[in-house]
Specification:
The chain is built from five helices and three strands. The chain has helices at about 15-25, 35-40, 45-55, 70-95, 100-105; strands spanning about 30-35, 60, 65-70. Strands 1-2-3 form a three-stranded mixed sheet. The chain is globular, with a radius of gyration of 16 Å.
């Protein structure tokens, strides 16, 4: 099954396609995404999704990143990418407010 949505990954709130997809997955399935930040940009949301998938026997793979939660290295890389995605999200509001940062310096 292929699902897509144009909603930001900053939060899982309002992501109807994601909710539908997660409900559909069964034991032995693999969820394939292009990039981890398309799934979730919040480390908490990513951890919750991955935990739920693991509890249900579903693995996660990313086509553009070396993520495969069926292997230890893939789990480790997933955690690192999750941290970087959230960090990038947290930087964006500050970058758009450059005037404030410049006046303090």
């Amino acid at each position: 099954m292929v699902r897509s949505e144009k909603v930001s990954g900053i939060s899982t709130d309002g992501r109807e396609e994601l909710a539908t997809l997660l409900q559909f997955l069964r034991d032995g399935d693999t969820l394939v995404v292009s990039r981890i930040d398309r799934l979730a940009r919040s480390l908490r949301d990513l951890k919750n999704i991955v935990h739920d998938l693991r509890e249900r026997g579903v693995t996660l793979k990313a086509t553009e990143q070396p993520i495969d939660t069926s292997a230890a290295a893939g789990k480790c890389f997933l955690d690192m990418l999750g941290v970087f995605s959230e960090f990038e999200t947290n930087l964006r509001p500050r970058a758009s407010d450059g005037r404030h940062c410049e006046s303090e310096g």
